[in-house]
Amino acid sequence: MPDISTQSPLIAASDHPLDPLTPDEIRRTAAAVRATHDLGRGMMFETITLREPDKAVIEAFQPGTIAPREAFVCAFDRTNGQVFEATVDLRADRVIDWRHIPGVRPRILIDDITLVGEVARADPRFRAALARRGITNIDNVQVDPWSAGNYGLPDEEGRRLSHTFCWYRSEKNDNGYAHPIEGLCAVIDLDRAEVLRVDDYGAVDVPMADRNYAARYRTVFRDDVKPLEILQADGPSFSVEGNEVRWQKWRFRVGFNAREGLVLHTIAYEDDGRPRPVLHRAALSEMVVPYGHPGGGHFRKNAFDVGEYGIGVLANSLTLGCDCLGTIRYFDAWLADSKGDPYKIESAICLHEEDFGILWKHTDLFTGEVDVRRARRLVISSISTVGNYEYGLFWYFHQDGSIHFEVKATGILNTASIKAGEAPTYGTIVSPGVYAHYHQHVFNMRLDMAIDGERNRVVEVDTVALPEGPDNPYGNAFTVRETVLESELGAQRNVDFDAARFWKIVSADAHNGLGQPTAYKLLPLSPVPTFSGPRSMVAKRAAFMTRQLWVTAYHRDEMYAAGRYPNQSSGGDGLPAWTAADRPLVDTDIVVWHSFGLHHIPRPEDFPVQPVTAAGFALHPVGFFSENPALDVPPARSSMSCCLDRSDSAP
Ligand code: NI
Predict the structure, then answer these.
(1) What is the pLDDT of residues 193-219, one digit of tens each?
(2) CA–CA separation, 474 vs 167, rounded Å?
(3) Comparing C-alpha atoms, which of 367, 376, 421, 372 is closest to residue 399?
(4) 31, 347, 352, 514: which one has the fewest Cβ atoms less than 10 Å from its Cβ?
(5) Residue 89 Cα, ligand 1 centroid: separation in angstroms?
(6) One domain, residues 306 and 452
(7) How many domains does the chain have?
(8) Do 397 and 467 lie in a common domain?
(9) Are 168 and 140 in contact (CB under 8 A)?
(10) Residue 577 forms part of a structural domain
(11) 557 within 8 A of 297, measured Cβ to Cβ
(12) Is 131 inside any structural domain?
């Protein structure tokens, strides 16, 4: 019985100011809002979540004491589209701030996702468009609720919308993405629950080859996969108290919310018994998936899956032995539905350890003596399903003080139909008559850095080859050039392959034993260039994707790279708006925003279900320590022998 799982005592603990709201706090928040600001029968809650306290509150907090506790609320009135924000003081069960937010749209809610299909299928214009394609079996039509974006179309003004694409399912479990119903898009008014418009760009024969991947459809499996069991007889090396995790000198707090999903707080590394801060907060602030096809309604495909849908809302309940292997600690998540009632996503977050190959090794050339240490890493992860795609958010903590983040993208390609004999300009054929458009997935991670405290600066490090000359007679010389990023406008930077560029986040106050300022470097592992034109709506609305690095002066309410309300936004919100002030960034409390992603030119191998492909970045200590911090990792128990014995494997 190798798989042992323990369930966390709910992620909603409320013993620490950063604990997510408990079910009771969610209920009390909704009740407090309704008591004084009831919007009537059209009232919907977009968000009820912890309003995270000021850093000073977190720093001053002592276990057993009572800290201020506030909830953030976004509510709207479906009957007139008015959006309101509230702050609720949970110590007094009282609304302490209520304001109308003009000109914005809440995100697409779970309620909307089912509504869109029902409304479309019931509409005579939509049915007529299907009939023109020979489809009368309406119940077999799958309608995907995409965000609508903002294209300045007069009839769409002032409405909360979804723009749809359609697929055909031969039966309930059939992979509809093998049967795109091309050229048919409905624009749905979500608040009026009606079809605003049917856009028919012209029919293409629906490809009907079955391309099912699910085990239920497969009779033949490879027969040489033997069990690979993870045994941790003495239990894992991590401990969890409330929502605080400790492992191999690392400590951090786990958070979760509807919008960003998994959030990590107060990440610190224990050095000489003293926790040294590295990050105050880390979470996925936004993402966008721009598609490159200009026609047939496809120009509207660019979902902001964090801000327009909520990657936390869409988190899976994870399953032992499938999603996670070994000795697992799960955390449940509590969210609020549109009525303000709490609901639970069971096992939304997985915490476990993995073997990670070798940590370090050396064989003495002259004596033959070998010293090797095995590495392990701590993994904390969640997986969200956003329509056809899955995104896994995976944080890795290492014994050498480094942190690694990966998005694992899997699921099903978004597809379209193509006429027989035509060669696609904007995609790859993945099945007869079916092609998948070129696209990108661009993520933005908000990293509220705290290298040995809040006073930090960012330094750009380029490597330069020196010209041949008297100081470089053999032409081999290269060195590094460091540039301090002084203020926000000048800190919008891209990678430079020719300079092997990276960025260091440097403490203003702390030094290591060698007298060097302590620092971490941000290693951009998955930069993606932007191909959306500068005048395109998606480039305006997702300006964050055009730069791999942004740095801002910390402000409590500056949380999301494309702004608080990206759904149907006209652009300019978030990073471009905040950085216009060009605030100074040197030796102050700063936030680093890193954009990275997947440039996806689909392959036939990505269909009918895509093998995981990953994108991410690393944070490595640079002079944060004075030497390799993992010298004290002991040799593996069985390995005094493997220090000398070359036969690591059984004969
Ligand atoms: Ni993709």
Answers:
(1) 999 999 999 999 999 999 999 999 999
(2) 64
(3) 376
(4) 514
(5) 42
(6) yes
(7) 2
(8) yes
(9) yes
(10) yes
(11) no
(12) yes
